[in-house]
């Protein structure tokens, strides 16, 4: 898939088939995520790959917008690792860039995925940290349920000239 096509056609997919996602494909998607830029090249990310059916099903209660996880074949938690930060607070931007790479890579492989936010919601952060035994310096940014899509979402342009300002606001 050509890059601009991937950017213009990637959408949040919340319905999945029962077909498993190969481990090698997950590794390739994580490799793409780790190619993201980061402040000072700190790469302050950690990833938790969730493949156990019981654990995925239990996650539906962690977050009000996570019901689709019971049909996903895999999920990935993108986390910030504060011990790897070079510049305090930039982990959110760095991990968001990794998240976008992850979503585009999944789409490029033909998978469906959706970014569900965790940070900055304290209740969600606490629930994920507890369920996945995360140390204090690890902060869950977001969770991506993914699988082979069982839905097709049409893509329309979101370009809005009124949002563009040159040289000054």
TrEMBL record:
One of its GO terms (molecular function) is oxidoreductase activity. Transmembrane segments: none annotated. Keywords: Flavoprotein, FMN, Oxidoreductase. Its EC number is 1.-.-.-. It holds the Pfam family Nitroreductase. It is an enzyme of class 1 (oxidoreductase). It comes from the Bacteria. InterPro entries: Nitroreductase, Nitroreductase-like, Nitroreductase/BluB. Residues 7-60, 66-148 form the Nitroreductase domain. PANTHER family: IODOTYROSINE DEIODINASE 1 (PTHR23026:SF90), NADPH NITROREDUCTASE (PTHR23026). This is Putative NADH dehydrogenase/NAD(P)H nitroreductase. It comes from Pseudodesulfovibrio profundus.
